[in-house]
Amino acid sequence: MSGEDTPTLKWSASFSVPSTSSPSSKRIKLSGDKILLPPSALEQLLAAAPVSESLPDAAAPLTSAFDPFNPYTYAAERHARESLLERQQQLPHPLTFRLVNPANGRVVYAGIREFSAGEDEVVLSSWLRLALGFKDEDDTLEEENGIKDTEMSDGADVSRNPQKTGETITVHARQLPKGTFVKLRPLEAGYDAEDWKALLEQHLRTNFTTLTNGEVLDVPGGRGIGSSSEHFRFLVDGFQPEGDGICIVDTDLEVDIEALNEEQAIETVKRLAEKAHRAPGTTNGSSSGGRIDLFQSEQGQVLPGDWVDYSLPSWDRSQGVEIELSGVEDNQDVQLYVSPLAPRQRAKPREDEYIFAELDGRYPKRIRINPTNAELEGAEAIQIAIHAFSESDKTTLPAIGFTISVNPFDPSKEQSSTSTNSDTPPNPGEARCDNCHQWIPERTMTLHQNFCYRNNILCPQGCDQVFQKRSPQWTAHWHCPHDRAYGSTPQSRLAHDTHFHTTTTCTHCTLSFSSIAALAGHRTSVCPAKLILCQFCHLTVPQDGDPLHPDPAALLANLTPHELADGARTTECHLCSKIVRLRDMPTHLAHHELSKTRRAAPIPCRNALCGRSVHGADISGNTRLTTSSNELGLCSRCFGPLYVALHDPDGRALKRRVERRYLAQLLTGCGKDWCRNSLCRAGRKNLGMPEQGTSARDALPMIKPELVGLEGGAALHFCVDERAQESRVLAEHVAAEGVYAVEWCVGALEASAGNVVKGREWLGNWAPKIVNE
């Protein structure tokens, strides 16, 4: 059937657009080109869904039992054809719509999020409201999206003429072609593909189903606090196939970035050249960072406003870690941030997301982490970030040099050293100056104090710092009126006020905080956007949840909200084949571990060369496959040649049969070249032992000790097959490791048919370990 004959979905309706303050708009936060329609719209769409005419040939039966000569099979065939007709009456995927604002004629294409809006209402995302010309009552939507009324220098007009909310729009069902190519034009110069490429791909995949020609894409950039410049804006300017819109779901989309005009292209090349000149790792740029080890000192530099990241991959977990930042001039403000790389903490330390930080203006800066710190539990590495504070985002100032070092420290020794009395003079005959607090010889104290009080001043606010009275450090010295912080440069005061006394808002959950430090505590604890390594899907994902009303089930299970939902998936237990939820699997396996101590241990065959057990063992952990046993404690294979259906209450006949079997082994042997039986003629030859017992006269003295120990439980020595002999040797080798008892090792090798790898797996699943008291 040709593409022109393909049935299309025809449906349209008018809906009112609620304001952003209405409950229906606040209930779900929409992004990209997503809309909400009422449930009645879904019913209308299903009713209008076309029925495909590509039904099978009427002569071809749909049911295998259909017989045209049997009237009883006609009902099943008719039902199958009706079911096929119902299955083919489905909505296209994905559902795309053409939105028209009749007040200004604006048109944009959109995808559906849910059918949960209020009746006769359509809820639009912020991007769609702006594209259709709607504006919020507080007149702040454009500032939040980072898009302002602009006219392109080449004549392309992307200005907005906002309308008031409360109007209506017309929604048309429109199936768009799959896009293969799109041309984007950056609205600002200096965009680097390394910065926006991955962000654009993720932004389109997460938030958009369609693209509309002539609209502006706003791609958020980094996580800078309040940084309006962290946005990449592109004008959509052409598709393949040509048209007003395309669908970008389930298609390979080629993206071409072309400058808006020649002046922008020249400016972009100029900015990229400047950026490369100050790129990380270059002479004029910040250091590239990387790995740092204990007892290692690294010298580097950082541009104002830039970050240098280091990683400590390993350290002695029994000792603490001291991270020291030094080599910075007193008039510079370089900050030290530290966060562990753990399953519950994946993000690099940044200004608004860190665990430990040293932000004062005094050097050297030290962060000490005790070995008992809970943040280090399960940590794979310790991430260290060095940041140079800057009043703006521009990095035109020269780089600042620093030295970073990591060393272990013993907390117990640290406590003993700090407990010493600091009032004890270091040398006899010395006293402390009341002004500068230095230790001075008592004989020169009067001369020193006359000079000291005339030229130096002790800070009266209790920081015990001494300055020259006419120095710029004393002029700029400050104490925070809200806390105990202090410094001696205007930049350090600005950095302190910015970090600790500036109200800020979380960009992910819109909660407000009194300071960036409080925001950092939120971002590393209960923020829904905090990145974790999910223990079930093994992906780095946001933890989700409500920061104000945490889920009690997640708290009790010690899981994040994402893990609680992801852990609801089920899987089959590899031990008992039961269907268990992923989040319940640790408890389920703990029950298996507890049951090991109550499981009956295998009873090895009394034959010293046999690797089988008396009752048998299988791969499912069963150690009692049979209940039958014999008076000699042999497995069924070893006892089989000795079995006779004869009443023998005192065991004399059995003893004679054992004697005859030993005589047969010593006189003729089994003739196998792999036999290692010391009471077999072939086995003694293979072991290199002297021939002995080749006659009945010589053999009987060798057999007598075996018969004496027959009732005492001594080991027997009967020839067995090669696999049983090898399994016994391997079981004894595994038992020699001291982890599992020999009887469990025998059962494991029997269940795994002599495979050591599978035998060790069997032991881990079913056998209890030896408890060393």
UniProtKB/TrEMBL annotation:
InterPro entries (alphabetical): AZUL (IPR032353), AZUL_sf (IPR042556), DUF7590 (IPR056012), Ufd1-like (IPR004854), Ufd1-like_Nn (IPR042299), UFD1_N1 (IPR055417), UFD1_N2 (IPR055418)
GO BP: ERAD pathway; ubiquitin-dependent protein catabolic process
Sequence ranges assigned to domain Ubiquitin-protein ligase E3A N-terminal zinc-binding in this UniProt record: 660-686
Biased composition (Low complexity): 12-25
Coiled coil spans: none
Domain DUF7590: 285-406
Annotated Ubiquitin fusion degradation protein UFD1 N-terminal subdomain domain residues: 88-138, 178-259
Location of region: Disordered: 1-27, 141-165, 408-430
Domain of life: Eukaryota
GO molecular function: polyubiquitin modification-dependent protein binding
Gene Ontology cellular component annotations, sorted alphabetically: VCP-NPL4-UFD1 AAA ATPase complex
Keywords: Ubl conjugation pathway
Matches recorded under Pfam families: AZUL, DUF7590, UFD1_N1, UFD1_N2, Znf_XAF1_N
Record-stated family: Belongs to the UFD1 family.
Name of the featured protein: Putative ubiquitin fusion degradation protein
Organism: Microthyrium microscopicum
